[in-house]
Amino acid sequence: MEAEYISTIGQDSHRFEDIPEGSYKIKLAGIDVEHTRPFSANSDGDVVLHAVTNAISGFTGVNILGGIADKICLEEGIKDSTVYLEEALRYMPEGSKIIHCSLTIECLAPKLKGYIDDMKGSLAGLLGIPKSSVGITATTGEGLTGMGRGEGIQVFVILSFRRYI
Q1: Is the dihedral of CA 141, 107, 124, 160 positive or negative?
Q2: pLDDT tens for each residue of 124-134
Q3: Is residue 10 a contact partner of residue 54, using CB atoms and an 8 Å limit?
Q4: I need a labelling partner for 133 at 20 to 30 A (CA). Which of 1, 9, 56, 162 fits?
Q5: What are the residue ranges spanned by the domains of the chain?
């Protein structure tokens, strides 16, 4: 059986609520991260899982965010972004598998160094791949964008797939 390898890109971003700073938890890659402001989002705002979901949609051709996820979130009241990711995975063609996930996160805050290992483990579990097959980097982007100035978080992800043909 012959295999082909395909890579896709996904992106998502969310701004933080414009409210006085306090003590909040935001979701990133399905884990709680301490921050001073919550996301402005209909769902839990997990930009990592949203970017991964978009990359899966790039492979399957089935757009989850903005359509199916809106129904799940707005009509059914399910805010958990892992549900949207699981929905995207349902459309994976038989004989295909995610084999690697590489993502970069742009934000000024929160500082992510202490969370990256847990985020990798969470993503590995959700995607069914080894933790060693997940790479995560973080940058402030030198403050050149709103994300780097602390207004929100942006994520870019590349997923690699193997499909037997």
Answers
A1: negative
A2: 999 999 999 99
A3: yes
A4: 1
A5: 3-164
